[in-house]
Structures are given as C-alpha cells and as structure tokens.
Amino acid sequence: MGVALISSPAFPSVFLFSLITVCLIPKLTLAAEITRHYKFDIKLQNVTRLCHTKSIITVNEQFPGPRIVAREGDHLLIKVVNHVQNNISIHWHGIRQLQTGWADGPAYVTQCPIQTGHSYVYNFTIVGQRGTLFWHAHISWLRSTVYGPLIILPKRGVPYPFTKPYNEVPIIFGEWWNADPEAVITQALQTGGGPNVSDAYTINGLPGPLYNCSAKDTFKLKVKPRKTYLLRFINAALNDELFFSIANHTLTVVEADAVYVKPFETNTLLIAPGQTTNVLLKTKPNFPNAAFFMTARPYVTGLGTFDNSTVAGILEYEFSSKTKSLSSNISVKKLPLFKPVLPPLNDTSFATNFSNKLRSLASAQFPANVPQKVDKRFFFTIGLGTNPCDQNNQTCQGPNGTMFAASINNISFAVPATALLQAHFFGQSNRVYNPDFPIRPLIPFNYTGNPPNNTMVSNGTKLVVLPFNTSVELVMQDTSILGAESHPLHLHGFNFFVVGQGFGNFDQNKDPANFNLVDPVERNTVGVPSGGWVAIRFLADNPGVWFMHCHLEIHTSWGLKMAWLVLDGKLPNQKLLPPPADLPKC
C-alpha cells in the first residue's frame, strides 16, 4: 500500500455534505475560513490483521478513521451518529475549544456519551491554531480503533515557516489487539491486575513485515529523489511511547503538538501517546538502489508488561526519468533493505535530550506568550497506587492481593454519572463533584525515594476551580510508589509552556531559577520524566471544565485524571456558550 501525498488511500476522505471537498488538499486549494460539514457514522466493520479477522468499531467503516482537513479559522460541524451498542464520544485532541467546551468530547466530563441510535453535532471553530492534531474516541478503550488525523492548514496565503514541502504525508501509530480491547480493560478492572498487551503496533493501521502474516499489510512511503516531504506523525497508540527512525535518513523536527518549533535534526523521534510531531524529510539526491525500513518500538520505563515488538514500514524511492531505463532490470523486492538502529527500550537519556531540544520559535509572527507572573502555583504528584480488593473471599491480581490504581495527589478520579460541565452549568455540582482538589499532596514524602508502606489511594470526583485569566504554574512530580515511570499528561482546552524539567524531587527553592521563560516548547501533552518532574505554565483563558489525564490509557482507566473548572470572565467573549439542543443525556 503506497502513498505519495496527503490524500493517501490509508486515510480515505470523510464524507462532506457541504459544497467543499477535502480531496483538494494536495494542491492546498481549500477555501479560507468557511464552515465545513462532516458526518461520522459509528459502525462495526470486519478487519483482518495478523491473519485474524474481527469486528471492530469504526468511523465510516474505515480503519484508521477518515482524515479531517481544515484551515485555521474554519468552522467545523461534525455530526456523529452512533449505530453500535457501545456508547461513544469523540475528542478533538488539541483543539482549544474556545467557549465551546460542549464540543470537547470526553465522556462524563464535557458531555454524556452518545447512546445507540442517537447523534450529536460537534460544533467548534479553529482559532489561532495550525498544524497536526488528531481525533479519537474518548470513552473506555474505544480509541484503539476509533481515531484519525486532524490536519489544520495555515490561513490562505500564510506560508509555513520552513521549506515548502513537495508533499505531505500523515503517519499515525496505533496498536492492534487480536482480542477485543473492551474485554481486555474490563478483565483488568475486574481482577485488579495489569491488562493484556497488544499483539502489534501499526503504522496507518498496518503492522508491517516484521509480524507474522503481515507482509501484505505494510505501509509504504514512496518518494522521489531530491525532494522535501512533510511527515505528520501522530501517536494514537493506547499505552506506549514510541521511538521511530528511518534507516539512513535524517529528520528535521519543525512542529510539536501543532505549534512550530525551532528546527533541529535528529535520526530518531520520541513520541508519546497523545503527541504529534511534524518533520521534514529531505530525500537523497539520486536513486539510491536501496529501500529503507521505517521502524518504531516502545520506550519503556515502568515495571509492567508491554508489547515488546517492532512495527515497520518501508521507504521506497520511485524511479525517475533518468532511472526508468534501469527499472526493467531492477525489482524493488530485490533491492537491499536497510534497517535503522533504535535506542534501547529504556533509554531515558535519549528521551531527556530529545525533549530538551524542543523550543518554541518565539518569533514576531509566532511568539511564545509565556506567563511571566504566576497567580496560582500547584504541585501534583503523578503515579500508581492501590485500592483494596473488592471481591469477597478472592485475591485480586494487583500488588499483594490489591487492585492497581493511579492518582494525582493521591486522588484517584471517580467517574461521575453526570457530565461535569453540565452539572456546573446547570448548578447541580453538589450532587456530582467537589471543588476542593488539593493544590499539593496532603502528606508530603520522598517522592522518588523509597516508597511509603501505605500505597492506598483516595477516590473521589474533585475539581480545581480557577477564576478566568488566572496564570497557572503546575509542577508534576513522578513518584516511585509502585516504580518510577514516564507519564504523558494531556491537558484539554489549553496549550501550555514546558518551562522546566528534571530528575529527583522538585526543589521549589532552587529549580525555578533554571526555568526557561523565553522560548519553552508549547504543547498539549508532555511526558512527566520517569523519576523526575516537569513544570508547565498556562493562562486559564478558556471557560469550562477541562480534563487532564495520563494518555497511557490503562493509567487513565485506573484513575490518573482530574479536571479544572475555569469560571466565566466578565466580557461576552469570556463566557462559555450555552449547551446545544442536541447535547446527549446520561
């Protein structure tokens, strides 16, 4: 399955029922600042991978799902119709949703899920954003198959701040289970143990030739010599950060989480679940008489089991007019196939060096508006813990007969029966949540040292309440309670600036002196270093209830999540808009 441009058959275009079409993307001829209508039909579809056929939940019977393409400033109306037995909701990962929190998508946070036979129109405008994002289901583990790219082009006439690419290609990583992922997480939550791991990683839905029975299911990137390609990487995997490399080629990173960065060259990318990275690939000047593996495998820091396998695609050079005379004598299958060398599975040193290279452009056109003053400071511990076994006369499969849990400041989030945003808007908060999430751990301890004897977490539905336009500094500290581990934390509704990170315990008296307040990277998902901490700053300028959670799906399932409630401002453009009439009911 080969691709040469952004309208790859790996991502068939979603059906539009307006007068425009996304098929024009390769020529960048989309009209500027218009309303785009899309329809997502949630349906079952038989899909075969690893010689295993099963029925999976899809959007428009496509796996991965259809590509959404728009321009900065466009207004999107996306009608989602649920034809399956599972409840569904869709999150537009990284979209700010200014004043339109009802369209953000996390089930029981901003909306009740869309039930069988019902529909909901996600209605939002893309304000001040351009780059690569993605959409995915945001309930249980349905995002294992319900996901796709969301590509935002600059406004018409606004160029990229880097070399104009010859072509653009979305590359989205995922995971494949031969079993039903819903059964996997259900079993894990019932037994209290860790979940069964996936059977393969995928590139654009394809496992590639390193897995059994998968040679025909290989993503192939076909390129021409002496060209520059923009590769739009998305990690939609459920539970694994990934290293990626293309043999004998150098990549130039130009964007992270739909924000331009100062370009830098690298042979290997590190991309966590929930993160996106745009790179420029400059092809070789002449036909190389070779093909090249593109491979990805996990970066592992935790103590649990993981899918220790490698997904591969193939970079193939097309014959040019000068080499066509050779094509009859050269078969691509007979060309030597070079393999890249990826870092060791636990290479935290590489992970640290890679993340430290990411810097905002901080230019006049694309400034880094880092909050220079701080109104409120928060210190959150991030990590695993345990709950008591709730099964009578039966031992659970977590540590010492307990059940695995995860928490922020030792609060494991309890999912409410009513959506938090609805409860807030209609004045029903007393029955749904408490506005007293702790701003720091209630009981301090040596976070990265010897773990405490008591590993039990508290459970509750608690929010942090912020006045509009509050300037926030948040330090997230990994803990070693059940082993140090990297956690990719995603914040809905905002971008934030990563002003500092380090190892060991954060020191409020010393570490802030080294914060980067000039050109820190701006993103929506950041890895809390294994055995370390990360500091972010953001301006709470978006009214609504905004989810923050680990993008390792198992950790979210165990409770590593919380929410921020940002109150309305005084001006009309500082207030949450009223809920739409078709907002789903619980």
TrEMBL record:
Binds 4 Cu cations per monomer. GO terms for molecular function: copper ion binding; hydroquinone:oxygen oxidoreductase activity. Its main location: secreted. Residues 1-31 form the signal peptide. PROSITE patterns: MULTICOPPER_OXIDASE1 (PS00079), MULTICOPPER_OXIDASE2 (PS00080). Its cofactor is Cu cation. Keywords: Apoplast, Copper, Glycoprotein, Lignin degradation, Metal-binding, Oxidoreductase, Repeat, Secreted, Signal. It catalyses: 4 hydroquinone + O2 = 4 benzosemiquinone + 2 H2O. Belongs to the multicopper oxidase family. Residues 43-155, 168-318, 440-568 form the Plastocyanin-like domain. It is found in: Secreted, Extracellular space, Apoplast. Its EC number is 1.10.3.2. GO terms for cellular component: apoplast. Pfam families: Cu-oxidase, Cu-oxidase_2, Cu-oxidase_3. NCBIfam families: laccase. This is Laccase. It comes from the Eukaryota. Lignin degradation and detoxification of lignin-derived products. It comes from Lithocarpus litseifolius.
